Amino acid sequence: MPVKTFDQQVAIVTGAGQGIGFEICRQLALQGASVVLNDLDESLVDKAVTQISNEAGNCCGLAGDSAKMPVIQQMIAIAVSRFGKLDIVIANAGITLFGDFLTYLPESFYRVMEVNMGGSFFLAQQAALQIKQQGTGGSILFTSSVTGHQAHKNLAAYSMTKAAVEMLARNLVVELSDFKINVNAIAPGATLTERTVDDPGYEKTWSEITPMGRPARAMDIANAALFLVSPAARHITGQSLIIDGGWTSVSPSPY
What is the CATH number that goes with domain 10-190+219-244? Predict the structure, then answer.
């Protein structure tokens, strides 16, 4: 029988109704994990949970805003009550609200901050409290972006949140290492998902300006995420891994 890397492990993944988050959940479940899948969109949650449960095994869902503390606490409560514990948390939920810096609206700014930074911070906090109580260690992973490393027009607010979660991963090394919790971040580049596949120029443009000749697929990002929360990466902490086919090394603008 094939080795299931995450057998007996319990994970929470936010922003997982489709795209990168969904593929991370799917791969965790295929490799033995029990997964709590969260997304803001209830219909996406239901569809994703059904697909993963039919294909892979243990998966349950919670629709709700992962930036809100009651939803965060409910996710953790579901993981513990249904599966007995919590080992892995992947704060993948995020929003992108494009806008020119000179006219960017305060309501857009604060919503991006709330979801991308606040949701990540407080999910990590509440998860760490649970993992500390268990005394068995665990892994926390944040989803950043190449825009946290390279300027991108009309993404000033979004970019600062992504740089911030990478600094959060680094800072939590001094907060959580005593509890055997490692904390890292992944920084995806251009990726083909449900949100980008409808743009007829997206794949062509990013294939032309990415050194490896194509944008990422969700599986490329999931592979990196699973490594960083696996036992093989237990001694890796405070790090950010860019997955972009080399784009940040040359950084040509898609515009």
Answer: 3.40.50.720
Question: Would you say the C-alpha torsion 139, 143, 147, 148 has a positive or negative sign?
Answer: negative
Q: Match 């991370």 to its residue by tokens.
A: 24
Question: What is the structure's pLDDT at 5?
Answer: 95
Q: What is the dihedral of CA 104, 108, 109, 112, to 10 degrees?
A: -140
158 catalytic, yes or no? yes
Instruction: Tell me the pLDDT tens digit for each residue of 192-244.
Output: 988 787 788 899 999 999 999 999 999 999 999 999 999 999 999 999 999 99
Extents of the domains making up the chain: 10-190+219-244
Nearest one of 109, 108, 110, 123 to 15, comparing CA atoms: 123
Q: Which residues pair with 60 in a beta bridge?
A: 36
- Indicate which residue of 110, 158, 202, 255 is catalytic: 158
pTM of the model: 0.95
Dihedral through CA 84, CA 57, CA 87, CA 67, nearest 10? -100
